[in-house]
């Protein structure tokens, strides 16, 4: 790779979809990176111990303190002896560990503390955990230096790359007419609302183009993920919601585009593979040769684009609404959704009721400015409790 020095990386959420792909990138570039620390929830201690041994890490943590003894045993069996930490404080300690870049690939609102801790410690933050930026918007923005957050989401990595093409003067929002975020449309693209009444978790988990963790996969089916991404783009690139468009592109090859005021549109294209945006966020400003396969220009391709059906998929319009409200509104949108996704996944809620319930919870919420972590977490907790009340006793 083109980076001049070995970059040390901490991977939070290392046993998940993004985490394991990040370690693939690192393993393929031993001269480019070393892994200083790892953290995970504690559900897969054998995988975590194998990673810790393979990368000879200094520290490893599990959020579930009860998993520490099993982790220690699995590490000892592999002859590895890193520092072992447990509980949410242990994960936070790894987020602040001495390194160049922290990759936050924890899933859900639980990632907020790690994002804040890594920023405060001055690390470059490769951010897959979009939820932390979205729910903690004002707090995260207050802490982050310009360029300190490197987006891992493929769409935002694409937008970032398209914005680098702004010219020698660098990014100037006044030169941009709009950001265009692409969406695969998920497994239910083209369906009407009524047709989605009986879809099952298995159907929602069958994403047509991406292989991802379960929460983001269901969020891609409801288009809540796209709603979260619209808010993420607003926070990362400081453009109003009226200048962030969503377009459905089922092939997932154009990952997003920037339309400039002169009518020029710059797009970023690559076959769907998270290793590319992960590698770019870890190596920035270098690029990692061979991080992913490029488009094969010797073959014929058809790339199509269509408008989003906001009636069948109201999640994006709702996200624009909560994003524009700001304060605690995005945290409530996210938390109510996480509760509803859980309920849907265990057969306790119909698919269209996920976004309907989120909308109800958002409507009932009295927005406050989100000026402290406690305030955000209180709004998050209220939204989870309210969503649980509204969905109790439902099933399909
Ligand atoms: N997957 C993708 O392609 C993709 C693309 C773009 C953005 N993202 C974003 O990246 C994030 C991760 O997604 P994913 O698909 O990789 O999720 P995932 O496969 O479900 O993995 C989640 C990871 O987080 C760990 N974890 C859970 N709670 C934790 C805690 N309290 N502290 C530390 N680690 C904890 C899990 O550990 P255990 O194994 O112990 O449970 C696991 O390693 C999400 O915010 C998602 O929206 C993902």
UniProtKB/TrEMBL annotation:
The chemistry this enzyme catalyses reads:
2-C-methyl-D-erythritol 4-phosphate + NADP(+) = 1-deoxy-D-xylulose 5-phosphate + NADPH + H(+)
Q: What is its EC number?
A: 1.1.1.267
| Molecular function in Gene Ontology | 1-deoxy-D-xylulose-5-phosphate reductoisomerase activity
Task: Output the Pfam families linked to this UniProt entry.
Answer: DXP_redisom_C, DXP_reductoisom, DXPR_C
Q: Where is the 1-deoxy-D-xylulose 5-phosphate reductoisomerase C-terminal domain?
A: 149-237
Amino acids binding NADPH: 15-18, 41, 129, 131, 213
What cofactor is this protein dependent on? Answer: Mg(2+); Mn(2+)
* SUPFAM superfamilies in the cross-refs: 1-deoxy-D-xylulose-5-phosphate reductoisomerase, C-terminal domain (SSF69055), Glyceraldehyde-3-phosphate dehydrogenase-like, C-terminal domain (SSF55347), NAD(P)-binding Rossmann-fold domains (SSF51735)
Q: Main EC class of this protein?
A: oxidoreductase
Task: Enumerate the residues binding 1-deoxy-D-xylulose 5-phosphate.
Answer: 130, 154-155, 184, 207, 220, 225-226, 229
Q: Does the keyword NADP apply?
A: yes
Show where the DXP reductoisomerase C-terminal domain sits.
Answer: 270-385
Kindly list the positions annotated as binding Mn(2+). 153, 155, 229
1-deoxy-D-xylulose 5-phosphate reductoisomerase N-terminal domain residues are: 9-137
The record's family statement is: Belongs to the DXR family.
* Record's protein name: 1-deoxy-D-xylulose 5-phosphate reductoisomerase
Organism, by scientific name, is: Nonomuraea spiralis
